[in-house]
Write a structure and sequence with these properties.
Length: 327
């Protein structure tokens, strides 16, 4: 009877499995939305070759920003430092960004694109790369963030360079397309809950305008916009006051959400947001695109509050095909 029951339950589970259900899978490119190596912070980057029989080269490209004292969302420069490594079958490599990218110590941080390269040189389809970043802040807070993987469109072992431009194109011919918008499924309005966003449309100097549609814990909608270039990693409160505890408490919210003390009164204000590109333009004002490609992550806490950690942002079913990076 137990065997029959177990078999029946197993069959039911198989039959009930939703079509297309998925988990994060290895890719040929890994995008790390943020690293820090300034002011006592450091970041450990791990890339693992999950193929147990074939080695690959990995091309590390670190867009490294120069802080703009006048505007933290508009870095003065965004230079790319290149590095390579060989990952033998089943190999894993963890590097300290400050050692791997010597410019990091004098920068405002940045992001990382790690691309699988074939034995003949150049990007190739090797959907076996997995990875994550561990950011350790001066306070001791540890923020673990998974890399965002992109699978190659050509079969494994083939070159991914299809149009001859030398760039990694996320358009469905070389690599998977990028989500058309990003979803912050939840944010907690505490000090130093931060957002990291990177642009993959246009050049590092082009300006990217973002639209934020924000809902509080009682479905009350708010909105704001922001212009940036290349990359930023900033507290949500610097983006807009609508992300703060004081502002959200003044809206028609649910007073029982996030009741930490079981008193029937909320301890923190929370919400969620939809982030969408609404235009990319050159420094001179000419349009590059009316809808650019972005990726990002939420990083929360500073070690002095109860909340810490981080996560890459969710995407939407609508895809964006004008994302590219490189060469």
């Amino acid at each position: 009877m137990r065997l029959f029951l177990a078999t029946a339950l197993a069959s039911a589970c198989v039959l009930a499995a939703p079509a297309g259900a998925d988990v994060t899978r290895p890719g040929s490119i890994l995008v790390f939305p943020a690293w820090r190596a300034d002011g006592g912070a450091f970041t450990l980057i791990t890339v693992t070759n999950t193929n147990t029989s074939k080695q690959t080269y990995v091309h590390y490209q670190y867009p490294t920003t120069t802080v703009n004292p006048q505007n933290p969302f508009r870095p003065l420069d965004c230079n790319v430092l290149n590095s390579f490594a060989v990952l033998t079958p089943a190999d894993t490599l963890t590097v300290n960004v400050a050692c791997h990218n010597p410019q990091a110590m004098d920068s405002g941080g940045g992001f990382l694109v790690a691309t699988a390269w074939g034995p003949g040189g150049g990007p190739w389809a090797h959907d076996y790369l997995a990875g994550s970043a561990l950011i350790v802040l001066p306070s001791g807070a540890k923020l673990a963030i998974e890399a965002i993987p992109f699978e190659a469109i050509p079969p494994n072992g083939q070159s991914t360079e299809k149009n001859g431009d030398g760039r990694k194109n996320f358009a469905g011919a070389e690599y998977e397309a990028i989500s058309g918008a990003l979803v912050v499924d939840n944010f907690i309005a505490v000090a130093n809950t931060s957002l990291a966003i990177l642009s993959l449309t246009g050049s590092a100097q082009d300006t990217h305008k973002l639209s934020f549609r924000v809902w509080n814990d009682n479905e009350f909608q708010l909105s704001t916009t922001l212009t940036f270039n290349c990359w930023f990693y900033q507290p949500l409160s610097k983006i807009s006051s609508l992300f703060t505890q004081a502002y959200l408490a003044s809206t028609p919210d649910d007073p029982k959400e996030v009741d930490m003390n079981c008193t029937g009164v909320n301890s923190f204000e929370v919400g969620w947001a939809l982030i969408d590109s609404i235009g990319v333009s050159t420094p001179g004002g000419s349009s590059v695109s009316n809808d650019g490609a972005i990726l990002g992550a939420i990083v929360a806490g500073d070690g002095r509050r109860a909340f810490g950690g981080g996560y890459t942002l969710w995407g939407t079913h609508v895809l964006q095909t004008n994302g590219a990076f490189g060469p």
